[in-house]
Write a structure and sequence with these properties.
Length: about 400
Amino acid sequence: MISPVETWVAQTTGLTGNLNPETLHHWQLDKLKEQIRHAAENSRFYRDRLSVSTNLTDLPFTFPEDICDPLAFLAIPQSSVARITTLATSGTTGEKKRIFFSESDLKRTIDFFAAGMSTLVHEGQKALILISDETENSLGSLLKTALSGIGVSAQILGPIRNAQEAIDAAIGFDCLIGMPAEILYMSRTEPDLRPSSILLTADYVPQCIITGISKTWKCQVFTHYGLTEVGFGCAVDCNQHAGHHLRDADLIMEIIDPETGKPVDSGQRGEIVITTLSNEAMPLIRYRTGDISRLITEPCGCGGLLHTLGRIEGRYGSAITQANGKSFSIHQLDEMIFADPGVRGYQAMLESHGGPDLLNLTIETNSTFDLSLLAGHLPPDLKIRINLDKSDPFRQRGKRIIHID
């Protein structure tokens, strides 16, 4: 069955019966002109930076550090803001990134979530949301509203202190929505749990995690790509699991060379750049995400005709580079360590005090860890120390990183 996301795109754009890459492109260009006018007229940041152009690549980039002055992007009166989400930043200013949404912005997110989730669940089923909280207009509450709109009962578990709480709560639910490492931990701790579908979101998803959960729980595992900055939802895969169907009615995605800023050739990997087409409160033009992927131009096996987004392959610049110029990343470690079916979870800490770097791995496993999984994949002079201990990801929640000591 064709992805419900592509059906939603056709309906939202008014291109039902005539949706294809060319008609979508022309529709997006018209919307882009409207978004540029809105941003240039109402956003202090874009006021002197934009001019209406049909050539997207002529427009300047917007960088994550720019949003540390969020009021410069606000394009509606503050009294019309329905939701403000605060994000942590790795910058040195100490400022937080605040993202603004209007009621209309949130409504579009709900509509996209409803389309995307109808790939995974159907009327009468139950979904457990293991991310976010019950706060009004939070990610979790928007998702719950979207699910309710397609006849699916949803529950937000809220604060979770440990994996066992999540496992106990998950009994009887048809669909679980959560972060990759947390869901994998649940599956390898309680292999007899039998959800019919899983949605992995909010962090990079290693292929070995998808395979591991699917094999253990004998269910379909779907992945979602999204950013809070552009409205939470961006793309979700279908039951073909060959690419993520894009939120093309609200966003334009480009893939660029992260070094030169130039568009890559069709099908080549590079950095994802996103332009919003409909955001009222906080339009973003050519926003540099730092995430690495590629656009797939071939039609999807589900029958969809539009391009899709390949799997997310990590983040540009997230690798740790040693003094000898060799580098490695948490994404590499995840693909290697989680490939061991006995591993439930792990944490990584790098000690670098002038001598050879030492990578401390605290691994929770059902047996012993096969160190040969790392052989030949990490810098040869990187020392590795394995400590077998508990590593429940619910006790230290968030995106996975290598901690630096």
